[in-house]
Write a structure and sequence with these properties.
about 130 residues; 6 helices; Four Helix Bundle (Hemerythrin (Met), subunit A)
Length: about 130
């Protein structure tokens, strides 16, 4: 596998491990942020792999899926869309109390679990 592709995947795994670590420490919206980042980097690795070019500097997961011309099944697609929306709220929080209510332990556990499933799906395309 190309070195650049491998690096994207290595970082995706690292960021996913960080999401799990943030979850275990009760830093829920940071766990969500890192979950998004891990999916973003895995998709950028797939972009580099499939299209043989440097991926664009974007955080938009739906844009990357569209450029890759890949379609996840319905539930995964909905999850990716929700995670994509969470990116802005967790990247630039306006109100930490609101984020704390939106990303409880239970919700964040579900997001981390769905992130793991999505990472497996992406890696299955290599």
């Amino acid at each position: 596998m190309d070195k650049k592709v491998s690096e994207w995947l290595k970082q995706a795994d690292y960021d996913f491990d960080t999401a799990k670590y943030m979850l275990s420490g009760g830093r829920y919206f940071y766990a969500v942020f890192m979950a998004h980042l891990s999916i973003e980097k895995a998709l950028k690795g797939l972009y580099q792999y499939k299209l043989k070019e440097t991926p664009p500097k974007t955080h938009n997961l739906l844009y990357l899926l569209n450029k890759l011309d890949v379609n996840p099944e319905k539930n995964m697609g909905k999850f990716i869309a929700r995670l994509n929306e969470a990116n802005i709220a967790t990247r630039y929080p306006e109100d930490m109390d609101v984020l704390s209510r939106n990303y409880t332990e239970e919700i964040t556990k579900r997001i981390v679990s769905q992130t793991e499933e999505t990472l497996r799906w992406i890696k299955g395309m290599f």
